[in-house]
Amino acid sequence: MSTGSLKPMIAPDEFPRASPLRRFGWEVALWLRTLASAAVYATLIVTFGFQIARVEGRSMEPTLHDQDRLVVNKLAYQLHDPKVGDVVMLLHPNKPGQSLVKRVVASPGDTVAFRNGVLVRNGIAIDESYVPVDERSFETLAAVAIPEGFYFVLGDHRNNSSDSRVFGPVPEKYIRGRIQIRWWPVAAARSFEPQVPN
Questions:
Q1: What DSSP designation does 75 have?
Q2: For residues 135 and 62, what is the distance between their CA atoms, to the nearest angstrom?
Q3: Is the pTM of this model over 0.85?
Q4: DSSP labels for 100-163?
Q5: Catalytic residue among 2, 7, 37, 59
Q6: Which of 74, 102, 137, 164 does the annotation list as catalytic?
Q7: Is residue 171 classed as helix, strand or coil in its secondary structure?
Q8: Tens of each residue's pLDDT in the chain, 198 residues
Q9: In this structure, what DSSP letter does residue 51 have?
Q10: CA neighbor of 84 nearest in space, from 104, 99, 64
Q11: Rounded to whole angstroms, how far apart are CA atoms 20 and 26?
């Protein structure tokens, strides 16, 4: 009658009695299996869940700085649409091989304009306290209507950013994920929740 116990694949006294070469082979096989499993899990996470990214440039200062390391949540927009205030990673509309980090400032159906550098959404001037005065721009641009399936994105460093003021609203399919965490430098690590302007 079975007692329900499991018999080990290698008897407890077999491993110590094995030759050093055979023990080394077992250890290498165990390590290789562990590494292969880790590689599969990492590939699945990067492909379907999260991605590590690095900021290149100053267009998101002071929120993000050149060479900051980020975790991008690629699942976020499988569950809901991007929201105004989200800091996102997207593909450059004119150079799809290049990734950008910007902030969503307007959604489908909104109108966007600029008056002396002040963002005006749906006729209301937006208080963007996260943009320092010396990093604001001073342009005046006529209202633009954001079509369905598109978003208007801006860098926080307004006078040093190529964004929707240059290349227009971006298709939702180009938005790859929401910036979840800045993990490097460690002293400046933080998580990002949407900062919805008033």
A1: S
A2: 9
A3: no
A4: EEEEEEE-TT-EEEEETTEEEETTEE---TTS-GGG-----EEEEEPPTTEEEEE-SSGGG--S
A5: 59
A6: 102
A7: strand
A8: 444 544 444 544 555 566 777 777 778 777 877 776 565 545 545 555 788 889 999 999 999 999 999 999 998 898 889 999 999 999 999 988 899 999 999 999 999 999 999 999 999 999 998 899 889 999 999 999 999 999 999 999 999 999 999 999 999 999 999 999 999 999 999 998 755 444
A9: E
A10: 104
A11: 10
Please report, for residues 14, 65, 160, 170, the alpha-carbon distance to residue 166 in angstroms, rounded to integers and kept in the order given.
70, 21, 12, 11
* Tokens coding 49: 């869940």
102 is a catalytic site residue: yes
**Catalytic (active site) residue 19:** no
In contact, 59 and 167? CB cutoff 8 Å: no
